Amino acid sequence: MLLDTYRTFGCETGEPTFRYSLIDGVKDGYLVNPVVVDARTEITTQLLSDEGYSIAAVAAPEDEKTSEEIIEETFKVRDFERKFFSEETNRILCRTFLDHALKDPITGEIGKTIAFCVSQHHAAKITQILNELAHELFPGKYNSDFAMQVTSNVANSQQATTNFTNNNLGGTGNFDERYKTGKTRVCVTVGMMTTGYDCPDILNLCMMRPIFSPTDFVQIKGRGTRKHNFTSNVIDRELKEELGELQKEHFKLFDFFANCEYFEEKFNYDEVLKLPKPGEPRPEAPPQPPAVPIADYENFNPDPLKTLEEMAVGPDGMKIDRRLFERFEERVKSDDEIKRMVEGRDFDAIESYIVLTWKYRQIETGGWNLFQAQPLTDEHRSDRLFPQNPAQQPATDLKSAPSCDTPLPWDHIDTGIDKQWLKADLQRALEAATVPDCSFDGCSHCGVCGADFGHNIVVPPQPIPTFTGHFVPNQNRAQRLRLWFGKQADMALISHLDLMRLLDRAVRRAAIPVAFTGGFHPGPRIVPASALPLGTTSSGEIVDFDLTEPMEPEAFKQKLAAQLPESIPLYRVESIAVNSASATQLLEQAEYVLAIQCLGSSETRSETEPTPATWQFWIEQILASSQILVEHTTKSGKVQQINLRERLSELELLAPEQMPQAMKDSAILPWVGVRYVGSCRNDGALLRPEHIIQMLEFVAQQEFQLGQIHRQHLFLASLHEWTNARDKPLGLPVTSAAK
Predict the structure, then answer these.
(1) In angstroms, rounded to a whole number, what is the distance separating the alpha carbons of residues 454 and 401?
(2) For the domain that residue 521 is a member of, what is the CATH number?
(3) Phi and psi for 226 in degrees, rounded to 5?
(4) Cα R_g (the chain), whole angstroms
(5) Strands 69-75 and 251-255, how do they pair?
(6) In this structure, are 512 and 616 located in the same domain?
(7) pLDDT tens-digit series, residues 342-372
(8) How far, in Å, CA of 240 to CA of 330, rounded?
(9) What's the pLDDT at 391?
(10) Run of H or E including 73
């Protein structure tokens, strides 16, 4: 895959088309370099040596005639956690990390870390060891959530990487509630988080495996190079101001297998990738001798730490960060043609030379082998491709460009902009002239508008208000006003949340001193009694307003009405005690008027409407019933049976002249009007308009369609009744529909 990617982008030699290196990022202040912690145990030192780690094993005799044989086996660093296993080595590596890891500058706990292991089995071991050691160092703080394995065989591992970035992996940290950080401090992985993973507040990287690929090494090292301001995660405003900026200056790269030494001293950066040309068969690899099986070995001996050294990487970076750029630099310095152009200070010609060299090699070889290509010879040069004499180069001066008066293929299209203005604007651009903004400085004669369209109206800019400090919500409650209002006409088409935003904005525009809630997201204390379904009109809504300063109810009504549309009429306002029960708590019943149409039975649709006497008969049957049961599915999936009859207080048939005006205006008079009063408590005991349809279908065995809904009134219990009735079951008195 790597080789195919290089070929796709024309970089068979390993040279990218463009590079912004780590060194550039560090010098520009966008990235940080690591502090390398080179730690080796007795065993890893031997595994890294040329001789390797040797053991002597006794081979069992094949039969009685043969004697026991001592076999010596040697393990190299590539065998670690593949054929050579050592619990003591893993434990000392984890303890070394915990003893020398960078701490979070705010809480003092171990900074966020990614540990890269040999295999998923190795990752499971490291996770368990880290959690055991963390329990010893921080008893009761993590409960086995200090380290978490994030590998492909673990469920929801992809989501875990996101949670680790968002500081909520394993829950919220419990060191300081004013600081947002995750409970899990270490992600133990194999290869999931090497590329394409961004977590700026990483403070430690642990390479608990040998690495031989420069790509893997650079990618792993790159996980910690992002800068980060730790106070950006502080929730408490006072603490954030007290701490100021706590920038990430560096990170620690724990190297337990001399990976940095390998890429500094042993890796061959001059090796060229040799790829077969497209269509050319790949050469067959020579046959390899059969591998001699080496038995797995598990070490149980102590493995103390032998060496530990910390080295800060300077601004020039590591060797691996410099070598690829040096190859391009050497290629440019060795080109005689570029040297000649530099001496003549002809930098435009240098750019053209490099680009044209690349283009020629692309055409000649079919590949984008730019920086490794040889300079163009005289045979390749021509006046068309690249003049030998820079004076013969094609003119690039805009003054010698084709005339603006030259006819263009799209001149017949009327764009609404005068071409002469475009020519003048081009000339001003060439002269670096500033074109005034016609919104503020008058007409610039661009051709878009004119006498036929009307000239621009100059709008003076608004003055920039002076900063008076951040908004501090006033939570003082001096008065509570209860408002009765309606929601009619087009206002029925706005949702409940939009209605609350409308009231909030109207209060602000009217300069009414509304009180605010506390917490992290303070909001105005505007509490409706009950949400109105979308599309439902009303003339009996109730909402409570808590104010920081007392106001006359009538003055409040006039100020608020001036900021609301006519479709939100205000009926009356009352002042009530601040600490009294809210309208939401006192709400008991609601009165609705419904427009209903009978569709007939499911087998045959009747063309004749039921008579008023038939409707009255159905209503009396409902009132005479003791129970009408329906099934209700809760949010948790439980199915419950509800007696709709006990939630109904009044039910009657309305004559057309008794219908509310809002329903008369909507041309639904052919439908039948029904008024009912039912339970509307906020504890879930609701009698919805849909329930009336269900009761009618139960007694009539017909299908009904619900049209418009209008809520006439909301009934509140008195404080005494509310206190005594909260724990009583529903059993409201029923009023006969006949009047």
Answers:
(1) 36
(2) 3.30.70.580
(3) -70, 140
(4) 40
(5) unpaired
(6) no
(7) 777 666 666 666 656 654 544 444 433 434 4
(8) 49
(9) 44
(10) strand 69-75
